[in-house]
Model the fold of this input.
Amino acid sequence: MNEILMDKNNLTLGNRLRAFAASFGLPRLIIAAFLLLLFIAAPFVGADFWTQISNTINRFSWNAILVLAMVPMIHSGCGLNFGLPLGIISGLLGATLSIEFGFTGPISFVMAVAIATPIAILLGALYGWLLNKIKGGEMMIATYVGFSSVSFMCMMWLLLPYHSPTMVWGFAGKGLRTTISLEGFYDKVLANFLQVNIGNLSIPTGTLLFFALLAFGMWAFLHTKTGTAMTAVGSNPTFAKAAGVNVDKTRLLSVVLSTWLAAIGILVYEQGFGFIQLYMAPFYMALPAVSAILIGGASVNKATIANVIIGTFLFQGIVTMTPTVMNNMIHMDMSEVIRVVASQGMILYALTRKTEAAK
Amino acid sequence: MKEKNMGKKLLSLLQANSVPVTFVLICAVCIPLSGLSVSYLLNEIVTRMGRNIFLILALLIPIMSGMGLNFGMTLGAMAGEIALIFVSDWQIWGIPGVVLAMILSIPISVLLGAFCGKILNMAKGREMITSYIISFFTNGLYQLVVLYMMGPIIPIKHFSIKLPRGYGIRNTVSLLNMRQCLDNLLAIKVGGVKIPVLTFLIIALLCLFIVWFRRTKLGQDMRAVGQDMNVARDAGINVERTRIISIVMSTVLAGFGMVIYLQNMGNIATYSSHSQIGMFCIAALLVGGASVEKASIGNVFLGVVLFHTMFIVAPKAGAAITGDSMIGEYFRVFVSYAVITVALIMYETKKRKVKSQMAQQLAQEQEAENE
Done:
């Protein structure tokens, strides 16, 4: 049974390889095939299939918006947003301030979004202004803007006058803790909305709906006049300028949008995860999001909503499946290594494509 | 007229060296606040100079060939670590161990460097972000080799460095028997400050090599490639090959540098020693007044002194100001990143100014015509 399944799988893969390798990209294919193998292998090594699917969907719902945040900047030609931590910081400020002001329950989530939004717009505008000054070198500088802002906020989390006893260190009475539990605040507030439970399968409908809403909004936006202009700026700035589009303003808008989505994204991530993680936690959060959208079929200058959905599912699928399956199969937890090599390899692959003309 | 020029020159000199000047100011404020004694401070700085300069010098060659800051120097550091793991497994200690580790690191560095150079040739114009991602990618491969393959596939005999489960290397590998053996040989004490003469001699040799190398045919080729790849290609230089050689050289030097660094530290943090090394070396170089396209040996020395002074005094000074030592710790990390960010921004704005001058002129003319 096992062998037949594997054979069939290989056969279709072989055909697909020839058909799609050119357009789809070999690394993407390998990753998709790998995930497929993991799903097939899961029941044979004793992992419950539906639990695995639930975990994957769950993690998908946490991360999808962070990946969606990549889309506007790719469209406007700013490249991959390695500066995602800046938006995450805005989200964290919204989350902590909402709790500090004494909001509890679902209202605290709404307030967190409400507080994070102006901060994200302000920081995003500054960041976008900076990126307009350095066209062509966005990705490297974005990385370091992210790092600088995270390490700057490390000092701020200690120095800002937070007092809420659920958040500050117990003995000192000041300085925020590294992880803050969201129990009693907005823990699973979206996930529990219309949650579907069938046997071992559970689907966080609310979170998925929230993502669908934002994704649809993004899709609709990209089809408005401004959205089309953004795509034009990304694919050919000279042409866009000639057509009367304000290139700098459009790019700025895309960066603000990306930063805001990152802020919302981290809030949704937190409500699923159940904890706020501060200090160095946002440091490397851009890399999984970047590799996810690339695995989904995006390139440095082209991305669609479908890329976001496919990519997040594949990436999070591998993240959740490898530890259990590999552990059961060879009694060796190599998931971390596989994840690093696959995701960084994907970014490298995208960076070395010659699709983007030097601007 | 002449005086005006002089004033302008002074201003532009200050502007060009704004980063080192800022650091001198930071250090001037922090040193008295930290309350550390002068002899302690001098001792620390000299130790850190011996430890770090070789690594930072490894960054100079890719800058020369126009490939920017080589974040891929981490690859060399990994090669150095793997070599040291082998040497300590074979129980070869002292100077022979250090020399053997350096020799062993060469093939690994060359291999990794060639791989890095090949990929960077495919990503011209975004070498820095690519080399940065390569360092992460290779870190994954490094873990695969060190955590899983060492033991069953690559023979590791000695139990003291192997994990109890039978394969993989422990989190820390002790180099106690070769700790500071380079530094202590020929070391002299001047007024309570230990000066590792041999290490400095090796560094001096490398400096001489770099000065000599700049004048060779290959060095000239690299500079030509760094100036303009197309012109260099027209002049008959094999651009791709030259770029790969420059990365390979940088990686090999970084491997040597890592061996020197680790013999001074006295142990290897197997999975984290290399992860921050690129960032700190690059930050130190930039603090010394280097930029992405231009760096000299002087920048390296000035940078090490200023950056590491800040590094030593920041936690104490931070504790003195705010009463929390963590603030200082975070402050120095923040400063490292901020320096790199600022340097990158200055480089890109300058590059863009020069590059787009023509285009802007054209656009202006067009706009004028349209009006």
About this structure: The longest strand of chain A covers residues 179-181. Confidence is low (pLDDT under 50) at residues 1-8 of chain A. Chain A touches chain B at residues 82, 130, 133-137, 139-141, 143-145, 147-148, 151-152, 154-155, 158-159, 175, 241, 287, 332, 334, 336-337, 340-341, 344-345, 347-348, 351-352, 354, 358 (CB under 8 Å).
